[in-house]
Inverse folding.
């Protein structure tokens, strides 16, 4: 199993596929309050979206260096309050070049 829960911690291990999103959601709804993804090698977009939406604190660094490079900064910043982000900063992220 790629997603398991021990106490209040959810462990993401190996390949977390689209089928695992439902399991992840169930664990989150059951009150898990920490996610350890140090054993994760692949994270499907459905699982990633759940992590973004719930803003549960993330622990560890994924085994896959691409996940660590591209997704870790996004997920760790999602843990922070959005009150400190200026509207101009979020608008500049969405601008397109003419």
């Amino acid at each position: 199993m790629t997603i398991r829960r021990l106490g209040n911690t959810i462990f993401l291990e190996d390949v977390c596929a689209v089928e695992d999103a439902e399991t992840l959601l169930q664990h989150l709804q059951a009150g898990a309050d920490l996610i350890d993804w140090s054993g994760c090698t692949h994270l499907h977009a459905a699982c990633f979206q759940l992590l973004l939406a719930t803003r549960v604190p993330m622990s560890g660094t994924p085994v896959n260096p691409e996940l660590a490079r591209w997704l870790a900064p996004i997920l760790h910043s999602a843990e922070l309050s959005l009150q400190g982000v200026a509207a101009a900063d979020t608008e500049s992220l969405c601008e397109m070049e003419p």
